[in-house]
Amino acid sequence: MSTSGVGRRGFLGYVGTAVAGAAAGVGGATLAGSSGRAEEQVPAGDAADSSAWAGRTIAPHGPHQPGVAAPAAHVTEVVALDLLAGTDRDALGRLMRVWTGDVESLTQGRPAPGDTAPWLATANADLTITVGAGPGAFGPRRLGAPPAGFGEVPPMRHDRLQERWTGGDLVLFVAGRDATTVAHAVRRLVADAAPFATLRWRQQGSWNGTGPQGQPVTGRNLFGQVDGSANPQPGTALFDETVWIREGAWAGGTTLVVRRIRMDLDTWDELTREEQERSVGRRLDDGAPLTGSKETDDIDLRARSGERLVIARDAHARRSHPGLNGGRRIFRKGANYVLDTERGVESGLVFSSFQADLLDQFVPIQQTLDELDSLNEWTTAIGSASFAVLPGFEPGGWLGQSLLA
Ligand code: HEM
């Protein structure tokens, strides 16, 4: 815990700290690598002292931007910007220094420089801000070469992409426990980018990664499925291998694919529970594979019941499994959205996937699913964007320094 990078002054006192500690059991592992900050425990009586309200925050420094491995946040806003024609390498460097200051302030609960609503910067919101660059930010005039294995996701047969949710030269992946704090951070970051870049799209979603007793849980998408069970776990060698770029100027960074996926809840609801479970290969109540007994069990792709495969040939968890994809893995984060549109209420998932090598990890898995996946009947990608996530930075350093300095 003391190396979790989650600095906290327990305004709830020891009891609150214990609960936060349980939640950070995930965070502790996930934040490995971000600069460790000793945990401070404040006795309950100290809550009357306003300094005890400093709240817990996630340290912004370290070899990786901490928002990638941080536990799935309750609120996520993904924001894409387009660079203005005149934004060259020097200007990008200026923007990155400005954003670094914003990240260092806002994530620690302090107003950003020149903040017009400083009261909205609050600690204890688990705020993380992760910055990345899209295809248009590369080239000799700008960031130079992208990391090896970076590229755009090729068109998929099932895609119905809309311009308004697709592409972008820069990304801000802003996540936290509270929508007001997240919205305020986005507003500041976009305002500070105005001399360099304009807003392209902005999408928001929510995730409940906390169980009824406050314990960390995997969370569910709007089909009701437990979603994220087979993810590599932050803090493990498998996670590091899957997610982080290891060499060159991009070492410590990663790549991010954001897909906006519409989900047809009305036709999904017409299925029997058995049909719904068959389409993924996992149970709805606890997320356990149909071949196993608990959520963390790996699925058994060979298991049969008589002649029949227990995990169907077109089940989503079979098609996306490393066993069918040459051992390839990705790290997924979801954010559920519901939006009132001209054509009625639309529901879906802001699906984010982090991987060291976008073209060799994400794309082949996505292609396998595009070829055959039972879920294709109820899910449609309507937006898609690829970004390279900048390496982390240390105190005194800045975002993108290894690429722009
Ligand atoms: C709305 C769309 C989607 C839904 C509802 C969905 C749902 C699920 C569910 C319920 C699971 C099983 C539990 C788990 O391991 O997380 C799963 C697993 C998985 N999904 Fe998806 N998914 C969607 C889109 C995608 C996309 C676009 C990709 C990648 C291109 C993907 C890749 C994976 C992978 C890699 C696994 C883990 C397989 C394993 O190792 O067992 N999913 N998904």
How would you describe this structure in keywords?
405 residues; alpha+beta; two-stranded antiparallel ribbon; 12 strands; disordered N terminus; binds protoporphyrin IX containing FE
Overview of the structural elements:
With 405 residues, the chain is α+β, with helices and mostly antiparallel strands. The protein contains 9 helices and 12 strands. The strands form 3 sheets. Strands 6-3-5-4-12-7-11-10 form an 8-stranded antiparallel beta sheet. Strands 1-2 form a two-stranded antiparallel sheet. A two-stranded antiparallel ribbon has the order 8-9. The longest helix has 18 residues, at 13-30. A hairpin with a 2-residue loop joins strand 8 (304-305) and strand 9. It has helices at 13-30, 89-106, 179-192, 237-243, 265-268, 273-280, 316-319, 358-371, 401-404, and strands at residues 6-7, 57-58, 75-83, 128-133, 170-176, 197-206, 254-263, 304-305, 308-309, 331-341, 344-355, 379-389. Helix 2 (89-106) packs antiparallel against helix 3 (179-192). The chain binds protoporphyrin IX containing FE.
